[in-house]
Specification:
The complex is a heterodimer. By secondary structure, chain A is of the alpha+beta class. Chain A has helices at residues 6-17, 29-42, 126-133, 135-148, 157-166, 169-191, 193-210, 212-230; strands at 47-54, 58-65, 73-79, 86-90, 95-101. Chain B starts with 8 loop residues before the first helix and ends in a 16-residue tail after the last helix. Classes of the chains: A alpha+beta, B alpha+beta. Chains A and B meet through α1, α2, α6, α7 and α8 of A and α2, α3 and β2 of B.
């Protein structure tokens, strides 16, 4: 379970630096992990940190949850083999749930750390094996269902207001439209309303800071202010 | 080559996204493409700032698209690479290739797909 090779380390570092809404990777593992995080969202876990370790036959994703008071760390093993089996471990209690789960999950509950839980579904059956074949499809299918759910959520009004006032007229409507579309179509279905709103605020602040013409405008205002004070 | 002879790293990423997305290249899709492929969240403001800069240089052009209800009836702004953009993209790519030529640094490794 070492991650000694440079690419693995590099990837691991990137993962560790990521916030919950920056969890995508440019590898095939991406889709699985995204879905995994979506699933965890449904259990009201919030990912504080995640890092990846590459083994000879699998990848392991370490996920630290911040909603539970102590911060439970789950370790998820993604096998190279089809079926995407993985295990859950609770680092806090040092108890392992040896059950292997397959995507789109046979629901390891929040009590994965409970030793009794290890008896819940201790071996994969033939039925499970067959089920794995359709995992990829059903995974997508499940996600589509989530995506098709109608949501009445609205982007934070104050953030919109700030953007409306501070963005240059040329790009204002385009940026607001893009953010709204991304918020409703991608971020909410993937991460839920709470994180989506945080994401919107994050985008607002970064857009204000990174939009060159706006930064230039702010600098001009500061310069003008300095000049007026100096004269 | 002059000061603007090559594209910067982020400009290259934006160009690649434009090429990949083709006629569906607008702010949101470009942002998502870059975020998903690089694993780093990119602000929409940075995308527009880069595209505006490249448009001023004549590398890309834009046109107003349709407005949809999920966008609050706001129009999209589609982007397209122009001939000077294609040229400078090729030049930048060649420059990188030339620099990499003969290097065996062991830093570039392809990940095998997992579970697919």
């Amino acid at each position: 379970m070492t991650a000694s090779s440079p690419p693995s380390n590099r990837w691991g570092c990137e993962m560790a630096a990521q916030s919950p809404f920056k969890n995508s990777q440019s590898f095939a593992i991406r889709a699985q992990q995204r879905n995994l995080l979506s699933y965890i969202e449904s259990f009201d876990l919030l990912i504080k940190d995640a890092r990846v370790e590459q083994n000879s036959d699998s990848y392991e994703i370490h996920i630290i949850d911040v909603i539970t008071p102590i911060g439970t760390e789950y370790r998820v093993r993604l096998s190279n083999k089809p079926g995407h089996r993985f295990n859950f471990y609770d680092f806090r209690t040092q108890l392992q749930n040896e059950n292997q789960y397959t995507l789109p999950f046979d629901a390891p509950s929040r009590e994965v750390s409970n030793a009794n839980a290890s008896h819940k579904a201790n071996t994969t059956t033939k039925h499970d094996e067959e089920k794995q074949v359709g995992d990829e499809y059903s995974h997508k299918h499940t996600n589509n269902n989530i995506k098709n759910e109608k949501c009445n959520c609205e982007a934070p009004k104050n953030a919109k207001l700030i953007l409306t006032f501070l963005l240059p007229r040329k790009n204002r409507d385009y940026i607001l439209g893009d953010l709204d579309e991304d918020f409703l179509h991608n971020i909410i279905p993937d991460y839920g309303e709470k994180i989506a709103k945080r994401w919107y605020w994050f985008q607002t602040i970064r857009t204000i800071l990174e939009h060159n013409s706006l930064t230039a405008r702010i600098i001009n205002i500061i310069d003008a202010f300095k000049k007026s004070n100096g004269s | 080559m002059g000061k603007d002879g090559y594209l910067g790293e982020f400009e290259m990423k934006v160009m690649m996204a434009l090429i990949r997305l083709g006629s569906n290249a607008y702010g949101m899709t470009i942002r998502r493409d870059i975020s998903e492929r690089t694993g780093r969240d990119v602000s929409i403001g940075a995308i527009y700032a880069t595209l505006d800069r490249m448009e001023r240089k004549g590398y890309v052009s834009s046109h107003k698209g349709e407005a949809t209800p999920e966008r609050g009836h706001r129009a999209k702004r589609y982007f397209k690479i122009e001939a000077p953009g294609k040229r400078i993209y090729a030049d930048s790519w060649n420059a990188l290739d030339n620099m990499r030529e003969g290097l065996d640094d062991g830093l570039v490794t392809t990940f095998e797909p997992v579970g697919v």
